[in-house]
Amino acid sequence: MKKILVVDDKKNVRISLGIGLRREGYQVDEASDAIEAIMKMELTHYDVLLSDVKMPVISGIELANTVAKLYPGVKTILMSAYDFKEFEELESEVPKLSKPFEMIDLLNLLDNEPNPFEIVT
Question: What are the structural domains, with CATH classification, of the chain?
Fold first, then answer.
């Protein structure tokens, strides 16, 4: 069973994703920002980081870069309500979801074997 860390500064997004993913059998923890996410990752092994891109203080892209360096086996999926074209520093292979998205789209990304990657900035 995959363990997922959901990171979003919007509480309702975290709760909704947590509920949906738990219904599908995943173990889910939540963090409201990148700092909390890194603290949780220091204590617990996660298979997947699911992070919003636009967050205060530290962006999801910066978080993904940090996770790629510190925890290279963790698959990262980024999500955003904004057009991903705004984020030039993202590689095209980076798994991403545009909000709002259907749970089936997320599940399809999760069902694929983890492909750790590095984000170029």
Answer: 3-111 (3.40.50.2300)
